[in-house]
């Protein structure tokens, strides 16, 4: 898995749930400019990501990378943990 295959998308977000085995739910927020009012709006989306060693906890800031489908919902994999427990 160390060899890179093409251009994989990466996202940075915060873990919101770690209750599943080897799976975490990651919330990713981005700012989008409204086409008419030119005001920036926060948009958020949640991804289910594969966490092989169950290292992530709720509130951790992580980087996830796109991968092949691992289950019905999982298409992302945790690449690294940037910060432990951002939310106290």
- Give the radius of gyration: 14 Å
Number of domains: 1
How much helical structure, as a percent, in the residues?
under 10%
Shape: globular
User: What portion of the residues fall into strands of 2 or more residues?
Assistant: over 45%
User: Main sheet: which strands, in order across?
Assistant: 1-2-3-5-4
Distance between the termini: 33 Å
> What can be said about the biggest beta sheet?
5 strands, mixed, barrel
Helices and strands, in N-to-C order?
A: EEEEE
Average predicted local confidence, pLDDT: 93
Give me the CATH architecture, please.
Beta Barrel
Regarding CATH, which class? Mainly Beta
Total of DSSP H or I helical runs spanning 4+ residues: 0
Count the strands? 5
Annotated CATH homologous superfamily: Nucleic acid-binding proteins
Q: Structural class of the secondary elements?
A: mainly beta
Provide the CATH topology: OB fold (Dihydrolipoamide Acetyltransferase, E2P)
- Give the uncertain stretches in residue-range form: none
């Amino acid at each position: 898995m160390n060899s890179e295959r093409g251009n994989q998308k990466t996202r940075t977000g915060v873990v919101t749930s770690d209750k599943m085995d080897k799976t975490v739910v990651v919330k990713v927020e981005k700012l989008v400019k409204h086409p008419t009012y030119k005001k920036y709006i926060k948009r958020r989306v949640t991804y289910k990501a594969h966490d092989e060693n169950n290292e992530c906890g709720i509130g951790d800031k992580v980087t996830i990378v796109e991968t092949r489908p691992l289950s019905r919902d999982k298409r992302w994999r945790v690449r690294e943990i940037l910060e432990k427990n951002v939310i106290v």
